[in-house]
Design brief:
The chain has 247 residues and is of the alpha/beta class. The protein is built from 8 helices and 12 strands. It has a single domain, classed as P-loop containing nucleotide triphosphate hydrolases (Rossmann fold), CATH 3.40.50. Helix 6 packs parallel to helix 7. The longest helix has 18 residues. The chain is globular, with a radius of gyration of 18 Å.
Length: 247
């Protein structure tokens, strides 16, 4: 992969303005109301995540980690406030424009995997490349190389129902990173994985972060991932209570 002087990525067409944060939020709120009960899942969150950061959102269950991740990724609309991705105000986009931005710039890893049951492991992993009109031979080559790195060689033709939870999570991670997005948002990406597989996935994501400048934001309880992160943002009751950077 080669990068031009203007911050463009020649092989993927990815363009990032120099000095523009990967993520910026301002006065972000997400409030749910049901039967007269008001839940403030995200409370007045303002933060900036620079290009190339490797960031963990940490906190107890119900602290708002997943909700914040979903709002930042445009999967959930905020109740109030703004979100910018690579300088684009995504809160001002239509649903169609938002879907296009997610396809071109974002990769997602969901705690529930969200694999398509009728597709094989390889087809699930290459799905984003298919939507980007990458030729079939290139799609297969890229997925097979990635599968080799994460221990999925030989399982390409299995459907999700024939894979263990850990194997499904590895396919989900492969799908998120194979298109080399500028930003990956991951909700408990190492959940249900054994120590060796978790370590290999963390190593892979750290390598992509170093080599290609991919920005990673994780919501996690995994102490191993927290230890590898260069920044840990802690949330309690939807609000940031600590933001620690490491050298």
């Amino acid at each position: 992969m080669s990068a031009g002087a203007n911050g463009s990525d020649v092989s993927t067409g990815r363009v990032r303005a120099l000095g523009t944060p990967a993520v910026r939020t301002q006065g972000l709120w997400k409030v749910y109301e049901h039967d007269g009960i008001r839940v403030e899942a995200v409370r007045d969150v303002s933060l900036t995540i620079e290009q190339g950061e490797f960031v963990v959102l940490a906190g107890p269950s119900g602290s708002g980690k997943t909700t914040l991740l979903n709002v930042v990724g445009g999967l959930t609309r905020p109740s109030d406030g703004k979100v910018w991705i690579d300088g684009t105000d995504i809160t001002a986009l239509s649903e169609r424009e938002l879907a296009r931005l997610r396809l071109e710039k974002l990769g997602f890893v969901f705690q529930a995997y969200n694999l398509l049951p009728v597709l094989t492991a390889l087809e699930n992993a290459e799905f984003t490349l298919l939507l980007r009109d990458v030729p079939p031979e290139e799609r297969r080559e890229r997925v097979e190389k990635l599968f080799e790195r994460i221990g999925m060689t030989g399982l390409e033709d299995r459907r999700p129902g024939k894979l263990s939870g850990g194997q499904q999570q590895r396919v989900a991670v492969a799908r998120a990173v194979v298109a080399e997005p500028s930003l990956v948002l991951a909700d408990e990406p190492t959940a249900n994985l054994d120590t060796a597989t978790s370590t290999s996935l963390i190593d892979l994501m750290a390598e992509l972060n170093r080599e290609f400048g991919t920005t990673f934001v994780f919501a996690t309880h995994d102490t191993r991932l927290m230890e590898r992160a260069r920044r840990v943002i802690r949330l309690v009751d939807g609000a940031i209570v600590d933001d620690t950077r490491r050298a």
